[in-house]
Amino acid sequence: YPPEKLDVTDAPHTDGSVGTLAYYEPWGDVVIFYGEYHPNDALYELGKVSTGSEHMKEISGEMTVSVIEE
Question: Structure pTM?
């Protein structure tokens, strides 16, 4: 969970494809998609996995996310 709620003004909704990092606004948590999901207007895209998204279903436990600004 981020230390404070994120401002989602003008933030894009996510398509939820595998490897997408998203923010679920009602609960204030960050999620990463590893499989199919049902679209939800409360999910906002934060970014996407740059490499290795094909291995998302194999990951278990905790992971560290680094932000790379382009």
Answer: 0.74
